[in-house]
Amino acid sequence: MTDTASRQAPLHAPNDALTDVAGLRVGHARLSGPGALSGTTVVLAPEGGAIAAVDVRGGGPGTRETDALDPRNLVQRIEAVVLTGGSAYGLESASGVMAWLEEQGRGVPVGREPGQVVPVVPAACVFDLGRGGDWRARPDASTGRAAVEAAARTEPGAPVEEGNVGAGTGAVVGPLKGGVGTASTVLPGGATVAALVVANAVGSAVDPDTGALYGQYFTGERPALPSPEVHTAALRRLAETYDKYGASPLNTTLAVVATDAELTRAQAQKLAGTAHDGIARAVRPVHLLNDGDTVFALATGARPLDPHPLALNAVLAAGADVVTRAIVRAVLAARTVTGPGGDFLSYQELYGTLAD
């Protein structure tokens, strides 16, 4: 494999979603009831698990079991990753996923009898406390169980719901409503690389000079720019909302980037790190002290990686690209939410058909 080959144009996979990596499933659950605007998303690996890694670059992360993914440590494969709202309180949702996996006998074998396992369930949270009006409405173990059960019910390769779902239910990006987004690509060599994000950032996804989404400049297609009149009206409405409610002090963008290529744990660690470039292209600024930006990497190992020393480059580049596209899709899929916790306007509402 040459460096030129690594730069050949990739193709979008069938669903343009994380589930295009064979064996991965995604499930969402959200809180119900008045004042609730939060939820949990679970990425379920194939039975037997996937090689996993993590890279945390935000200054205010909320995570669980990320140390287990260090390549120097014992755990080789994990069965699920949890992305959740509720800030650090919401990490309790991973307990529900852990209990479900134990019932399936899935986890690290630690006992003499079959089924005596400890499921390692890495998790990360976004800040969305109070956005529905009820500060105490946050995901718990039952929310996590509902999300993993939803993932297990899906068919292989099923489309992934985007927008105001799961951990993206109460997400915001700068002044705009955020949410869940996903994207995938097939490399010239045949490997699939995909991402799922929860876009919930302190920084903005919108170029203030044009109204285009920053990430659209990196998708290979020329952004459709709004008219100056539409953009001016959008800025005015956002300013009015800011004056009324202020800005959220804490946020986080989360991502799971995955591939069917056979990666070592060290290679997966590199993939998690370079995938952060995709966040930086789509959101400005990123990785601040009040962000908890975290990227997980999963490798199912179904497809051997070319042994050439630079073969990983194509996977690394694609990982950043699909994270950028997933953030764009999250913002475009989000819908306006109004309620006692605030008014969170969507890009779709502000810019209309331009967002289609």
Sequence-ordered SSE layout with sheet pairings:
Layout: H1 3-6, E1 25-30, E2 39-44, E3 50-56, E4 63-64, E5 77-78, E6 80-84, H2 93-103, E7 108-109, E8 117-118, E9 123-125, H3 141-153, E10 172-173, E11 176-177, E12 179-186, E13 192-199, H4 228-245, E14 254-261, H5 265-282, E15 294-303, H6 312-333, E16 337-339, E17 342-344, H7 347-351
Parallel strand pairs: 6-9, 14-15
Antiparallel strand pairs: 1-2, 2-6, 3-5, 3-15, 4-9, 7-8, 10-11, 12-13, 13-14, 16-17
Helix pairs in contact: 2-3, 5-6
- The global form is globular
Which percent range fits the helix content? 25-40%
The CA-CA distance between the termini, in Å, is 38 Å
Order of helices and strands: HEEEEEEHEEEHEEEEHEHEHEEH
The major beta sheet can be summarized as: 6 strands, mixed
Strand content: 15-25%
Poorly predicted runs: 1-7
